[in-house]
Every structure is written in structure tokens, then in C-alpha cells.
Amino acid sequence: MTLPQLYGVLLAGGLVLLAGIAAARAAGRLGLPSLLLFLALGVLLGEDGFGIQFDNAALAQTLGASALAVILVEGGLSTRWSDVRRMLAPAGLLATLGVVVSVLVTAAGVHYLLGLDWRLALLLAAIVSSTDAAAVFSVLRGMPLPRRLAGLVEAESGFNDAPTVILVLVFSMSGDLPGAVTIGGQMVYQIAVGVLFGLVFGWGGAWALRYVALPASGLYPLATLGLGIIAFAAAGAAGASGIVAAYLSGIILGNAVLPHRAATRSFAEGAAWLAQIGLFVMLGLLVSPSELPSAVLPALGAGLILLLIARPVSVAACLVWFRIPWRAQAFISWAGLRGAVPIVLTTFPIVADVPGAWQVLNIVFVLVAVFTLIQGPTLPFVARRLGFAEDDQAQQIGIESAPLDALGAELLTVTVPPGSRLHGVEVSELRLPPPSAIGLIVRDRATFVPAPDTRLREGDELLIVTTVATRDATERRLRAVSRGGRLARWYGDDGDTDHTPDGTRDPAARGEDQGDDRGGKDRRGGDDRKGRPRRGRNRRDRHGTGDHEGDRGEIRGVINSDHVRPRLLTRLPRRATPTPGGHPPPSDDIAADVALTTRGRRKHARPKPPCPEEPGRDTGALWEAPHT
């Protein structure tokens, strides 16, 4: 390649990159998944558009696998371990058994309804059975969903590519198909060894980055991304799943305490966007638009079978064992987005010279484009109808400030929706757990720093600075005030997601918690069998701050409304309304209304036993969205 030719290639590449960035901006404004516009850009540049000829399936397979590695490493780096930790079992079952069930159901439907032979039907079903990590990450992370629900869908999309690749390779082989035992053993080997490589490079890389001082801060993002790529390549060289290794190593590195974490995530996000733009544009170049009309009807038929039958059946078969509510299962079924992975997988049978492979490519391309256009924009509507998306759900945003990163701080944004009881509450009455604080309020397109007596209004956007340790308590407090107003704690609402709008617990959740409420026994050992607080120096408060100094000195954080059961409120009827003597009603924090002695005894009030329910229990109630 001569120098002038290199200049031409770089110019074309830069223009395509800028066009992709503009397409991402337009997709955000239109509420469409960006991958659709990237694919359209590739088709526009192709043989029926600007005339660029590209039909090298082997090169597309190589470049597609490389781009997927970068996308999966970035997805792992931006995944919070606390969101997926308890969801690993259901996500793993969805990524294995769910894929098998989806393939069988889809293949049967395609064979009998569309008339494809069994070999081609199984190949098509295996290709489209995998959810796409890039599509899922880009759509779900812009929605205010319960973190565990989003974590489950994201973890499934990160792990289910490995079994899908195995099935596609098996069905692309010539000759007789291997037995089910052979296929199952191959799946177990690839996933197990891929997990091993992910753990080794994740933990080993985190240890090395903590104790090896690099000469420049910009090297830390490169080293982190490089470790994920090495995990992908090493696992692939060992015949295991590089996809699992890349995603798992990214999760470990992203949740480790490493220098310059914010800069690392920003760099990985930029690399992932570059990989997505290049991948989808290349896949758009690979297809011939003149051949797509004949694939529309088969694609619609296969997509409907997958969306309305195969995906719900596979989700129900896998999640019924985990007591996950049907509403969450319905959302997970609808959130099974397809994207680059199915189109990349179509290159495997093309490279293997499977008869009808180019027809499969056209069907998969139309299926991905049409059903991404259907599912992606409607996901927020489905989430709202199922009760999962709320405007006042806190959303994490990126931070770049080094001091915040050093403190382990996070930035949250909260919007006060219409009808929320946050309206009219003063900033000081929120009583966010320290050191959380509202740093900025956006109101009527104007920003200002709130004072303690600033009242919140509907439509306000709050910028909240919090820490990793207090983020959950901050979100619970915001949910409680949004439902019950400034007296939320007085009415027994501690901000758990299993409360109904009136502050009481969901009956289904209450039924599941009854097993832990027998005899008032707190599972942490803080109460006796009658629900009374135990005496001693090591009692912890409801927020887990542990600010107790034994029986001497001031007790902080013990006497608050989290320790009051709703049924005990009937014993204090005169405290709920102003008395004839002019005494004001109780404030939101009971501790502010109770005088404490210097030796830890309080006056004029009886101790209230803490509520025995654990807000962090992994029950079906945790799938409830916050109510306004």
C-alpha cells in the first residue's frame, strides 16, 4: 500500500467513524438502538449504495470475534458485582439450558411452519437463540430498572454466547451430528475452562495493577483492557470459551480497587463504541440488499416463533426454580435482544461451505433488524406496564473527577416525577445518610446549589454525591420519602422495594418473610425471641453504621423509625398530630424527638424493637420496582 492509498483509507475510515458517531447521536434522540443505524450505514456503503464490495466471510468472522472480545470486556468492566452476584445461578441456567430449549422449540417451529430441513432449521435456531451483549448493554443501561433484574439480563447475554457458538459449530459440520453426550461434554469443558481463565487473569491482573506502579496514568486503562483481551485469546487457544473468559475477567477487574478506575472505564467504553461501529458497519457491508426481500417472510416467521414461543418457554423453564415473579420473567423474555452476535455466527456456516448458508445470513440480518426495531424502543413501555421502571429510580452516571474516584464516590441522578411526595420536601428533611448530599438541582433548565431549606418540586433533577458504602441506604431513603413523604420512617417505610405505595409491605413478599418473623427473631442476632433489643456493646443500628459506644456515651442511630413496627404506631396516637398544648408532630427521624442522656438512656419513650424483616433478602419482593 502506497502512502497516498493509506491516506485515502484513513480518510474513509475517519469519515465512517464520524458518521457512526452522528448515527449514535441520532439514535439516542429517536429512541432507537444505535446498532440499527450502524447496520443501515453499512448497507448504504455497500454494493447497492456507494458500491463498496465486501463478501469475505472469513475476514468478517475474524474481525467480528475481535470486536466482540472488546465489547464483552467493556461490559464486564461496567458491570457491578453486587448486581449479578445473586443472579449467577439463574443467569447460568438461562445461558445453558435456556439456549438448548430455545434452539429446540425454534427449530421445530421453523421446520414445520417454514419447511426448512432439520439441519438448516437447527442451524438457524442456534444462531438466533443467543441474546446480544452489545445490544443489551446499550439499551438496558439507559433505563431505570431494578439493578438485579438488569444484572440478570446482562449476565445472561454475557455468558450465553459460549453454548451458542458450540451448537453453531456442531451444526455447521459435515457428516453425521455428534451425540448429545458429546455436545454436553464440550459445553461443560468450554464454559468451565473459560471461567478458569477469566478468574486467573482477572484476579492476577487486579493484584498486579494494585502493586505495580506504572509510569503514566494512561497505561492503566491499556493494561486493564489488555488483560481482558489476553484472557479471551488464551481461553480460545486452549479450546475453551474466550467469550466467558473475557466477560468474567472484565467483571473482576471492574470491581477491584484499582488506580484510575474511572479513566479505565471511560477508555474501555470508547473502545467498545469503536468496536460496535466497525462491527455493525462491516456486517451491513456483508449483505446484499437486493437479496433481502426474499428473506422477509421467513425472518418474520422465525422471529415470531422465537419471540412469542421459544423465548418465554425457555425463560419459564429456567427461572421457575428461583421463585422469580412472572412479571420479571415476562420482561426478561421481551428483553432478549439480538444484534451483532447472530450475524457474526452466520459467518461460521458460510466459511464451512454449508448449503444454504447465505440464505441463513439474509434471514438472520432481516430478523435482527426488524425485531430489534420492535423490542428495543418498546422496552421502556413494557417495563413501565410491568411496574419496573420509575422516574425516581436513581441512575448511575459516569464520573471523571480523580478526587471522587479516590474517595470511592458515585454520582446519582434522580428525577422527581409528578405525584411524588418528594414534592415540597426540604433538602434538610431528606436526611440522606452521611456523607451523601445533593450537590446540584436542575429546575426549569436552570441549575443551582440547594440550601438546607430548599424545597423540591416536581420535575426537579437531583445530582447526588454518595459513596459505595452508603449508596443503597441513600436509594432506600429516597424511595421511602417518595412514597411516604417526610414522615416516611414514622409510618414504617424504610425504602425497601417490597412496599406498596401506601407504605405497607406487599402481601406476597410478606408471606415469604413470615418464616423469618417467627418469634421476632432477627437473623443477625440483634433481637431476642420477643423482638426486644438485646443489651450489650456490640448492637448495630439499622443502617449498619455501628456508631454505638457501648452503654456509656451517646447512642447514635439506634432510636429511629426503622426500629418501629407499623402495628406499634397505634400506641402513639397523640404523637401523630399536634397536641392541644401546641406540641409539634414528630419529625421524620424519631431520634430527633427523643431526649438522650449522656449514659445512653432515653427519656419519655419506650424502646421500639427493630423490624425483623431484612431489606436485603433475596426474595421475589426484590424484583418490585419503587413506587411513587
Explain the overall architecture.
The protein has helices at residues 3-30, 34-45, 57-77, 81-84, 88-114, 118-128, 133-140, 147-159, 161-171, 180-211, 219-237, 242-255, 261-286, 296-319, 326-334, 340-345, 347-351, 357-385, 402-406, 427-430, 471-484, 507-513; strands at 395-397, 409-415, 437-443, 446-448, 461-467. The protein contains 22 helices and five strands. The termini are far apart. The chain is mainly α and 628 residues long. The protein has a five-stranded antiparallel β-sheet with strand order 1-2-5-3-4. 52% of the residues lie in helices and 4% in strands. The chain is globular and about 75 Å long. It has three domains: 3-385, Na+/H+ antiporter like fold (Up-down Bundle), CATH 1.20.1530.20; 395-507, Regulator of K+ conductance, C-terminal domain (Alpha-Beta Plaits, 2-Layer Sandwich); 524-612, no CATH class.
What's this, in brief?
This protein is mostly helical and 628 residues long.
How many extended strands? 5
CATH topology name of the largest domain, in short, is: Na+/H+ antiporter like fold
Strand order of the largest sheet: 1-2-5-3-4
Tell me what the CATH architecture of the largest domain is.
Up-down Bundle
Task: Estimate what percentage of residues fall within beta strands.
Answer: under 5%
CATH class of the largest domain: Mainly Alpha
Q: Kindly name the structural category.
A: mainly alpha
Mean of pLDDT: 75
Helix content: 40-55%
How many helical stretches? 22
In this structure, how is the largest beta sheet organized? Answer: 5 strands, antiparallel
**N/C terminus separation:** 63 Å
